[in-house]
């Protein structure tokens, strides 16, 4: 059986401000921030503020807000990195590849012929993540 939502997961801690994140976007229902182990330059995560482990236990209203932010931030990520495309993915439960049990959607800008790096390959430099987050925030401002 699937365990219940545990608020002590790492994204729950980010939402409560207990650990830092390179935030690119926030509204009443969602938060977007840089993945610390990017599978490509600009790898960004979008999460709902409402608690759910994954896609399958989320309220439909949570998903409505989440997908709107995925599109909004996805456009900015693609623009900020002058990408040719955008890969969007989401995992559910350990067997599905999930390691952090608060619903999240991955956004990775893609360039022709450049493969994705390994999932959870290595920690990125903090200064680099800060610069990438600033680039995405600027693209969001330009789109507003
Ligand atoms: P998954 O649950 O497999 O979809 O992946 C969880 C993702 O969260 C991985 O890509 C990790 O690199 C990322 N991650 C883990 N801890 C943090 C953190 N503190 N801040 C940002 N991203 C994180």
Tell me what the structure shows.
With 144 residues, this protein is of the alpha+beta class. It has one domain (10-143): 2-Layer Sandwich (HIT family, subunit A), CATH 3.30.428.10. Helix content is 31%, strand content 17%. α2 packs across α3. The model has no long low-confidence stretch (mean pLDDT 96). The structure holds adenosine monophosphate. Residues 10, 21, 35-37, 45, 91, 97-100, 104, 120 line the site of adenosine monophosphate.
Could you give the topology of this structure?
Blueprint: H1 10-15, E1 23-26, E2 30-34, E3 44-48, H2 60-80, E4 85-89, E5 105-110, H3 126-143
Helix pairs in contact: 2-3
> Which regions are unreliable across 5 or more consecutive residues at pLDDT < 50?
none
Largest sheet: 5 strands, antiparallel
Any guess at the CATH architecture? 2-Layer Sandwich
Put simply, the count of helices is 3
Ligands, ions, cofactors: adenosine monophosphate
Mean pLDDT figure? 96
- Please report which band the strand proportion falls in: under 5%, 5-15%, 15-25%, 25-35%, 35-45% or over 45%: 15-25%
- Which oligomeric state applies? single chain
What structural class do you assign from the helix and strand content? alpha+beta
- CATH homology superfamily: HIT-like
Helix proportion range: 25-40%
Radius of gyration: 14 Å
N-to-C span: 44 Å
CATH topology name: HIT family, subunit A
